[in-house]
Amino acid sequence: MTGLMKLAALASFIYLTILTVFSLIKPVTKKHKKIARDFIIKKRNQARMEKLYYFKDIVIRKVTSNVLLSDTKKDEFRLMIKRLDLKITPEELRARQIVLSVLVLLASLLIMQVQSMLGIFSMLGVVLAWMYP
Questions:
Q1: How far apart are CA 116 and CA 110, in angstroms?
Q2: Residue 25, pLDDT score
């Protein structure tokens, strides 16, 4: 009788051990692992992009609003943005304008090294990039 009780106790101990081990370490399929990895990668990339947008927003607002953008130009850009129904701020528009003008200037200087007359005509792109954001 005691042997039967010992056997029942051993079976219950093994059963409880298996339950606790499987509750701690659940077997996961490859599909679920892939989904979890993709989710972690997407979250990490989203966090990086949010940091980049936050940094870009802070830098653009501080630099362009005080130094490179007057109140009248800001109002003019707001009207233009509202008329075109864009989802950007006047500061972002000014920053894009500066970047585009610098890129056109660099391209013009490169073209001027190849052929001077064509480079001089391409300098009009700098003026156009500044006039028409």
A1: 10
A2: 80
Distances (CA, A) of 16 to 5, 13, 21, 65, 95: 16, 5, 9, 67, 65
Query: Residues 25-50, buried b or exposed e (16+ Cβ, 10 A)?
Result: eeeeeeeeeeeeeeeeeeeeeeeeee
- Rounded Cα–Cα distance for residues 77 and 29 (Å): 54
Structural domain boundaries enclosing 82: 31-131
> For the chain, what is the domain count?
1
Give this prediction's pTM: 0.53
* SS3 of residue 89 by DSSP: coil
Given this model, what pLDDT does residue 41 score? 96
Whole-number Cα distances in Å, 88 to 10, 26, 38:
70, 48, 31
In this structure, is residue 47 part of a structural domain?
Answer: yes
> What are 9-55's pLDDT values in tens digits?
999 999 999 888 887 787 778 898 899 999 999 999 999 999 888 88
Are residues 100 and 129 in contact, defined by beta-carbon separation less than 8 angstroms? yes
Q: Residue 68 gets which letter from DSSP?
A: I
